[in-house]
Amino acid sequence: MRIDIDEPACIGSGQCVLIAPEVFGQRDEDGTVVLLRPEPGAESREAVHEAAGVCPARAIMVGG
User: Fold this and answer.
1) In the prediction, which pLDDT does 33 show?
2) What local confidence, expressed as pLDDT, does residue 64 receive?
3) Cβ atoms of residues 33 and 48 within 8 Å
4) Which of 3, 18, 19, 44 has the smallest number of Cβ neighbours within 10 A?
């Protein structure tokens, strides 16, 4: 699984961090998503897909 982030689209809602904190973080200065693990293991698959699905800006793309 590969994750890509559209940083300019991110509005800093933080839903991804709440759902998958082992994969996503946020910059302190503006709340923009930070990808902690661009290729997380299978154990994070469900949480990553959920985080992408609830992102209000659709800034998280999951492939593979």
Assistant:
1) 97
2) 72
3) no
4) 18
3: left (phi over 0), alpha (psi -120 to 50) or beta: beta
Contact 60, 25 (CB under 8 A): no
Task: Identify the structural domains of the chain with CATH numbers, from first to last.
Answer: 2-58 (3.30.70.20)
DSSP state of 39: S
Cα–Cα dist 64/58, whole Å: 18
What's the pLDDT score for residue 62? Answer: 97
φ and ψ at residue 58, rounded to 5 degrees: 55, 45
Residue 50's pLDDT is what?
98
The confidence score (pLDDT) of residue 3 equals 97
